[in-house]
Amino acid sequence: MSENKKEPSVLQGFKAFLMRGNVVDLAVAVVIGAAFTNIVNSVVKGIINPLVGAIGTQNLDHYSSCLSTSCEGEEGIQILWGSVLGATLSFVITAAVVYFLMVLPMAKYLARMEARRKAKESTHEVIEVTELEVLKEIRDALVAQQRQSGQQGPGYGGR
After folding, report:
1. Backbone angles phi, psi at 65, to 5 degrees
2. Is the pLDDT of residue 159 over 50?
3. DSSP letter string over 124-152?
4. Over 50: is that where the pLDDT of 93 sits?
5. Burial of 132 (0-12, 13-18, 19+ CB in 10 A)
6. What whole-number percentage of the chain has pLDDT above 70?
7. Which ranges of 6-80 would DSSP assign to H, the alpha helix?
8. CA 28 – CA 22 distance, rounded (Å)
């Protein structure tokens, strides 16, 4: 016997996909990343390139090496290592800013929250152990009192 289960439509599946939290988070990350790229490019163009320009040219794209006998105009084989250096510097700056301004503070915050949670749990455990110890002492005192009076209370059963 087969049951006819209604499959969700493609539109319903797409709507469920869009309503997930990670899709929205990803969209926000892309927008922030695009804006952040402009900041990094400005830092490279406004700070790094002039520092490199103190040694040579301000535009890293001009640094290249020629593999053929002549590299005049469009002829020859050029390796544009200056472009690679500029992209590498952009990456390192981006990674440093993300790490020091976002990852490190968040990790410290999460560590503090975890330490607070563990402190609360250990305090709760100490209270529970203390209550358990008090209950054991009360039980032992009641058992001792019953033995001294020669009575057997309910639950101990006589022979």
Report:
1. -130, 145
2. no
3. HHHHHHHHHHHHHHHHHHHHHHHHHHT--
4. yes
5. exposed
6. 82
7. 10-19, 21-43, 49-53
8. 10
